[in-house]
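Dear all,

This email documents one entry for the complex benchmark we are building for the journal club exercise. For each entry we list the sequence lines for every component of the assembly. Then comes the predicted three-dimensional structure of the complex as a token string, followed by one or two observations. Please use this as the template for your own entries, and keep the labels exactly as they appear.
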Amino acid sequence: MSVMMTPMLRLVSKRVLTAVVLWTVAGAAYADLSIDITKGVTDALSIAVVPFARAVPADGGLDVAAVVQHDLEGSGRFKGMDRKDMLSAPSRISDIQSADWRAAKNDYIVVGRLTSLSNTELVIEFDLVNLLSGQTLLQQRVSVAPAALRHGAHRVADLIYQRLTGTRGAFATRIGYVSVDGAPPAQRYQLLLADADGENIRVILESAQPIMSPAWSADGEWVAYVSFENHASAVYVQRVRTGERRLVSARAGINGAPAFSPDGRKLALTLSGSSGNADIYVLDLATQSLTRITEDPAIDTEATWSPDGKQLYFTSDRAGGPQIYRVAAQGGEAARRISFGVPYAARPRLSPDGTQLALVVRDGSGYHIAAQDVAGGALRVLTRGTLDESPSFAPNGVQIIYAARERGQAILAMVSADGQVTQRLKADRGEVRDPVWGPYAD
Amino acid sequence: MRKTLTLLVLASVLALSACSGKKVKPVTGAGGEPVVSTQTGAQTGGAGGATSGTRGTEASTANGALGPTGELGSQRVIYFDFDNSDIRPEFVDVVAAHGRFLANNPAVRVRLEGHTDERGSREYNIALGERRSQTVRRALSLQGVKESQIATVSYGEERPAVAGSDELAYSKNRRVEIFYIN
């Protein structure tokens, strides 16, 4: 395996690699996503989110209260009041006629107002009131640049969600995913980012060759991915804000399954070398030094880090079929199998607190998303699709986004880790897949 | 959302070159974050073959102009069973025909592209596709084909031959395609 240790620069110098900007496609057509709840909790909280007093024209026409309500309803844990039924539109606590809102069966009310402080700062002030007790639960300001007002609205939803459920919301986060357009074999691939509600879509990479396995750095600055743009697999890391990208591995054979370490300094990778046998490696991004973690004639791939950076979880078929294993991230240790009871267990991803593992399992009815306690314990199968794959936890651990196939179309879907809430993010055309939930932005 | 032209021009100053020597210009879309577009140029190395990546079709239909002819030699796709990388009996003679041709023409090279159906996790399928192309590589080697004549690549489930989620589509997608490079 000496080829694996060859410095990357020497390897890539053997090839002529070029890329050309496709000016005409930049700015880019892409499919829109729409979210809908397919199952919510039975005891959803009733909340009235009253339209916020606007700051014209600095708010750019964005309806902040509508974004907040859509976020809260999208979580499956809230039922928002229909605006048509609102008798008044208070923007301050002193203007709330509590009896009216209680009569309309609301438990909580949110009022708010926008103020334009300067060309560069918009302030959202909002209040959350318990209509039954009269208690003010939140009185807060969120300050944003005007161009980031939608993000500010998601932060408002995060704060309300946290106050009422005890868990930080994850609405002000982003997802990454791959979209594919066109019929085989002439397909086009895009790597996209979107707000967690499917809005605000940005294309960050496009190619005529496959793009797969996007992975965020813990600070949200970088996305790693696999691109076949040179008719072979290669792993790149790209800085989201600037588009700067670096080729980090274009070795012989497989270059796949990148995963940033929690401190962002290392990348776990799957490499095969010219022998074709996939094993797990850890690449130090600053020094380019490569540490081999597994050495087994079986397939070892899809590594993911524990939150403390000390362990790697990965898929291996060393026992015959694919199962989940754990190994020390510094190497030099035998791997331990941790999945049992299903013939197929693959693509592990850890919850942010490191206690739960999401994975893909196969049973008699197909491939589903399941979760299990890392400490041991039974698998809980969370989804009922036939081709569910690529699970990824939200940074608050409440939901898992995954890829599914519905009536022949590849879509994204979400399921809560307790299985109670399910949602669907559907593209208006083409296929979407390989979702990965980004970290908190702050 | 798509009023991009001025921003495109403004952002083009951000051209950065990756450490590969690859020149990639980020292009800012309306949202402020750049789009990187890739286009594969001509390649000189053995891993290449197709000369353009703009249409993405060249690598997906096994070419017939080069390589052996005849009933066996003109077959360029080897099909596999589910989650399996063994060469099925009906393809042993096909692989052997390619092996004889390559052994007799040591200047000719092939690229073996391994593929899977869409079931199962994507990266696991990359490894499975690589395993399939390695099986064909070993069979060719046993016939005296030199290692330097063979390159392998796995696309896993990323480049299906046909669309569809039924066994007929799956059976067409679990394959190794043999490409003659020169």
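Observations: Residues 149-165 of chain A form the longest helix (17 residues). Residues 1-27 of chain A have pLDDT under 50 and may be disordered.
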